[in-house]
Every structure is written in C-alpha cells, then in structure tokens.
Design goal:
With 316 residues, this protein is mainly α. Helix content is 61%, strand content 4%. Keywords: Iron, Membrane, Metal-binding, Transmembrane, Transmembrane helix.
Amino acid sequence: MEMEISLASSVSSLLLVTLSMVYVYYYTTRRRSKSSPHRLPPSPPGWPVIGHLHLLSDMPHHALAELSRRMRAPLLGLRLGSVRAVVISKPDVARAALTTHDAALSSRPGLLSGRVLSFGCSDVTYAPSGPYHRVARRVLVSELLSPRRVEAYAGVRAEEVRRLLAHLSSHASSSSPVDLGECFLNLANDVLCRVAFGRRFQHGKGDRLSSVVEDVNELFGGFSIADCFPELEPFVSSVTGFRRRLKSSGADLRKLCDDIVDEHIRGKRQRIPGDESESFVDVLLRVQKSAELELPLTIDNVKALVRELMSTTFHS
C-alpha cells in the first residue's frame, strides 16, 4: 500500500513539473513575441518541443499552401522543432525574396544530407552564400545554360530524335505495344546525359545511374527529424538509421562520380561515333584549370557539381 502511494506521489510530482514547464514555456514565449521590436509574420498555434511539425504531411508543400490559404497570410512563421522557418506562398513576395533581396536571404541550412551527399555542401543548391557559391553558379549558368551552349548541342538533340523515330519505325510493323511515355522519357535522359557526360547510359535493368540518383533524390527530398533538431542531430540520425543510409548512398554516389570524372580525365569515356562535342564534365575540368576563377575548384567541387547535374538530368 505504501509503495502504491509512493508511486502515485511520484507520478503526480512529475506531472506537476511537466505542466509547470509547459506553462513557463508558453508564458516566456508570448512575452518575448510581444516585446520583440521586429514585425514577425503570423504563426499558427504550435506545440511545445515539436513546434508546427504536426501540421506537415507526406506532401508538405500542399499542407503549407493550404495552411497559408486558410490563414490568408502570404507569409507564415513556423517553428519546425527548434528551427525557425518562414513560408512564402505568394508569387510577388517570392520574387522579392529571391531577386530583390537575394543577398540578404540567400543563406542555406547546412543539412546532414547536403554535407554527406553534396561533398561537403559544395554544389550550387547546398553551398552557403559566398564567393564559392557565386563561382559555382556562374560556371553552371555560363557553361551549361547559356544560349551559345544550348545551340551547340542542337545536333545531339536532332540525332537522339532520329534514334527515337527509328526505334518507333522498327516496331510499327510488329504487334507488340510500345510505351510512348517511356520512349519520350528515355529520349530526354539520353539528350541530357550526352550533354552532361558525353555519352548515353543503359536503360532499364542494371541502370546504375538511375538507381543511384533515385536513392539520392529520395534522401534529399525525404523528411529527417534530425534536421529539425540540429543540436540532437548526431544522436537522432544514428537512432533512426538516417546517417547509416546516407553513408551507404554516399559511398555509391562517390564511386559513380569518381568513375565519370576519371574517365574524362584519362580520355577514356565511351565516345559516340562522330560526336566531338565537349561535355559539361569536360567543361568543368577545363574551367577548374583556369587561372581566371575568383576561387579555385577542387576535384570534390567538380564531383559535387556533377552530382547536381545527375539529379537534374535523370527523370523517372
């Protein structure tokens, strides 16, 4: 009997302490928000510790868009765990944030996935704002997306379209069905792979590029509780197995990037007969040796940009 009373007393004390902590948390948070000199965007009610994580779903962009519409707020302030975030859902506000005030709002969080899968956050997406980010972005824009470069690969596009038409013609007289969606998907991938890497990659079973990129994109796009609690990241990512999976996928990705870059350095890439055009990997390796760069590119920087190109190249 005495043991039961002692147990009930302990539970009551623990509950009292918990409620007191919750009260103090809310009281101090409300006072801080009222006394803050900054005009903060409206924020929906949140929970202690997790903040607004409970408002997210499997498709967070849909959930956040609906929340913004329901609150009639183009700007929303959220707390995802211990991380503060602002949601922009209006085009003109997004334009102001991404163009007019780009210098003030261009910082990026150092996510665990970016550190492992982007070679130390050295691609354009995850690199912190600064000299390196400017150099990497300028290289991508001027050497891959410029009108001159797009025009230079007109022959590649025409050749791949001819290959697709020949493939369809060969199946025209047979009774076997043809998946046009898959054909057009392979066409896009073949064009982009030739522009980026100077060659085609195998489709279907045994497609090493697509399997690695799919896994990496899933890790980049997936939800990680460790990113919401950076101070607990080593413990949380280890317990959930996220760090182990990142290291496994990172090893596969590094091996693939090593092979692609090495075959270009050694001049042993599988050239398509008659194709003498310079691939984007060739361009990166040439630019790396340039003395005009504001900041030199390391070989890992080159591999990070190749990785980013993989994610934008492969479509499934």
